[in-house]
Write a structure and sequence with these properties.
It is a single chain. The chain has 252 residues and is mostly beta strands. The protein is 5% helix and 46% strand. It is built from one helix and 18 strands. The strands form two sheets. The chain has a 16-stranded mixed β-sheet that branches. It has a two-stranded antiparallel sheet with strand order 12-13. The radius of gyration is 16 Å and the shape is globular.
Length: 252
């Protein structure tokens, strides 16, 4: 289930992003950050109640496989990060591909800490291209709905902040993608140095998680917990109703 991550962000780009974060609370953490394919599946177990179990160094959540996917959707509440003086990162998104492939078509939100200050943003990404940030304001507690649909090689990525009343829809065409997984994920983003420290986001709650119009639980999905060595970074709850779950922060 592992995938090789290609990380090419330059030092100059990272410096520019950190400068932006220092001057604007609404500034985006991208493009120096990457939301990447799943890294480091270090364990996989037999099906338990129709659910597989794995551990990753950068993902926590559910990934469905076993068919070709044309859609994925979910709702979530933007978590409020608890910041110290450290700079940390977290993202929450839906996507197609990434579990077993080197591409991900995804859209979601960011909740970072920049030298003790919370920074929230939203974005889409057609990995391995860099993420593109939306300029719309994002706040902790905002309710989001999101859908990605595919028709042939055309991908329509829609993200809606129902609290603030804005919607962003991006359409991209890309060929040669496997479309072999669909996921709803909390992630520790990566940079040229690898997986970055995870923000303390408390608990992220996801609801109405579906793939191909069905509950994601119908696909014997992979329940993924995030860990680095023996350190558990985030844990994923069991599914409720096949569509609802939460991811809880444990460690940076």
């Amino acid at each position: 289930m592992s995938a090789t991550i290609r990380l090419t962000a330059a030092t100059a780009v990272a410096a520019a992003v950190l400068s932006a974060l220092a001057t604007s609370p609404a500034a985006a953490a991208a493009p120096a950050l990457r939301m990447t394919p799943v890294s480091g599946h270090i364990s996989s177990h037999q099906l338990v109640g129709g659910i597989r179990n794995s551990t990753s160094s950068n993902w926590a959540g559910y990934a469905a496989t076993g068919t070709t996917f044309t859609s994925v959707s979910a709702n979530w509440v933007q978590p409020a990060v608890s910041c110290t003086r450290s700079t940390t990162y977290s993202s929450f998104w839906i996507g197609i591909d990434g579990d077993g492939s080197n591409s991900v078509e995804q859209t979601g939100t960011e909740a970072d800490c920049s030298s003790g200050r919370a920074v929230y943003s939203s974005w889409y990404e057609m990995y391995p291209a860099y993420p593109v940030n939306y300029s719309n304001s994002v706040s902790a507690g905002d309710h989001f709905t999101s859908t990605i649909t595919r028709s042939g090689t055309k991908y329509t990525l829609t993200l809606t902040d129902t609290t603030k009343g804005w919607t962003k829809t991006t359409t991209k065409t890309q060929s040669g993608l496997s479309n072999a997984s669909a996921e709803v994920i909390a992630e520790a983003p990566s940079s040229s140095s690898g997986v970055l420290p995870l923000s303390n986001f408390g608990t992220a709650s996801f609801t109405n998680a579906t793939a191909n119009g069905q509950a994601i639980g119908n696909y014997s999905p992979d329940e993924i917990n995030m860990a680095s060595g023996s350190t558990t970074k985030a844990t994923t709850s069991s599914l409720s109703g096949g569509e609802n779950f939460s991811v809880t922060y444990n460690h940076s």
